[in-house]
Amino acid sequence: MREEDLYTEQYFGDEQQSVADAPQWEQQALPTTRLNVQYRNPYLDSMTAKVRLGDYFDTGRLPPAEVVAAVRHQSWRDLEHKGGSLDLVGDRLYVLFFRSMCSKLSYVKVGRTKKENKAQVRKRIMAHEGEAKIAQAVLFDAWISRPCVSAVVWENGVKAHLSAAAEEDIIPVEQVKAEYFRGIAFGTAVRVARMQEDGSGVVFLSP
Questions:
Q1: CA–CA separation, 189 vs 104, rounded Å?
Q2: What is the pTM of this model?
Q3: Contacts of 108 (CB under 8 A, 6+ apart)
Q4: How far is CA 172 from the centre of its chain?
Q5: Among candidates 52, 42, 8, which has minimal Cα distance to 140?
Q6: pLDDT tens for each residue of the chain, 207 residues long
């Protein structure tokens, strides 16, 4: 399958549309910079950055790089806050919300990392950020578990719950691939993950 076909299916399901048709205002790609000296603004806190990013997206304007950087930086800080050091060995479950310049392309990604590779967390999420460029989306919210022995059952339970909800219209969610969901609020997806934790038998590793 060609890459463009994969993402057409991922973001649009059975609709025969191309993600290349997603609006790219000012003919520029969404800035992808992380927060650094060049884009650090001491007067731009993370909450303000998220509000400003939403305003830019809602009015069809390309957000400044410093706003995108602040939003992404906060998402990575949230990962460290929720799951501890991202370099620790262990399976992890994660829930990521990518907000797109084109609202219908925004989505929640549910996935896990494997314990064998302690560097996998950063690599995996950065890879997801790379994929999100096609949908002109930025990592807007992020949650990750603490390291555990195995997150396989936990991940399967979360995806099964969301898949069932999509089929039965229990909550506003549309499944477009095995791990990709549109229409669901980030907080709702995280609550589903926490609900499934108890029934998964997950065993967390000591810090």
A1: 17
A2: 0.83
A3: 95, 96, 97, 98, 180, 181, 182, 184, 186, 189
A4: 17
A5: 52
A6: 333 344 444 444 444 333 444 444 444 677 776 656 556 676 788 899 999 999 999 988 889 888 998 899 899 999 999 999 998 888 999 999 999 988 888 999 999 988 766 678 888 999 999 888 888 899 999 999 999 999 999 999 999 999 888 887 767 788 887 789 998 899 999 999 999 998 899 999 987
Q: Give the span between the Cα atoms of 189 and 166, in whole angstroms.
A: 12
Residue 87's alpha-carbon distances to 105, 113, 118, in angstroms, are 31, 12, 5
Q: Are 115 and 146 in contact (CB under 8 A)?
A: no
The neighbour count for residue 50, using CB atoms within 10 Å, is 18
Residue 105 is classified by DSSP as G
Question: Residue 148 carries which DSSP code?
Answer: B
